[in-house]
Task: inverse folding
């Protein structure tokens, strides 16, 4: 490794034995320029040792019998990287550990939703309404319910988000104080509906 580090320094890189070790372990993330110089350094070292080896190709450096970790989530393999470098789309897949965590997280979310008081016949779909707005989060906290419960019951009662319905009821020229009063009335109506005691308009 010292010889390879010396070759690298000859090409202008500040390499040490530790640098080469980090590259071999995959803990050092080299740039494309570094990989190019590494190929030249390996080729020069081969010539110096009388092996007559040509300069390695980039694909030679990527050769691996094990999956190649692109990130903590995505894996690929040598043949896929080779095709990608030739201009094809990169084939990759979610790593087994990451897939297990995603599955566990999805199961926890399903269990959370099952425990909520949602409208009858509601189909579990946590992404149906998107992320709750800051206003929805505040109203849900005031009522002591989950934001998803607020979103689902508002959709059932008014076929629109509670803030959108509030603005319609309050009127376009309503003050912040009036919108606040209307929000409290609607929130009371919504919580009564959740308890099955909603008074029809």
Result:
């Amino acid at each position: 490794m010292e010889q390879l580090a010396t070759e690298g320094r000859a090409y202008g890189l500040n390499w040490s034995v530790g640098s080469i070790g980090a590259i071999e372990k995959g803990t050092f993330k080299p740039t494309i320029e570094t990989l190019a110089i590494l190929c030249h350094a390996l080729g020069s070292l081969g010539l110096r040792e009388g092996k007559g080896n040509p300069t390695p190709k980039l694909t030679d450096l990527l050769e691996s019998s094990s999956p190649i970790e692109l990130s903590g989530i995505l894996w690929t393999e040598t043949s896929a990287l080779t095709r990608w470098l030739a201009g094809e789309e990169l084939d990759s897949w979610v790593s087994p550990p990451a897939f297990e965590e995603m599955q566990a997280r999805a199961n926890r979310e399903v269990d959370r939703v099952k425990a909520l008081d949602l409208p009858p016949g509601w189909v579990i779909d946590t992404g149906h309404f998107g992320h709750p707005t800051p206003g929805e989060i505040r109203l849900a906290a005031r009522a002591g319910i989950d934001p998803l419960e607020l979103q689902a019951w508002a959709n059932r009662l008014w076929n629109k988000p509670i803030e959108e319905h509030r603005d319609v009821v309050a009127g376009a020229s309503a003050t912040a104080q009036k919108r606040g009063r209307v929000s409290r009335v609607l929130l009371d109506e919504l919580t009564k509906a959740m308890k099955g005691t909603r008074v029809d308009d």
The first helix runs from residue 2 to 10. The first strand starts at residue 68 and ends at 69. The mean pLDDT is 84.
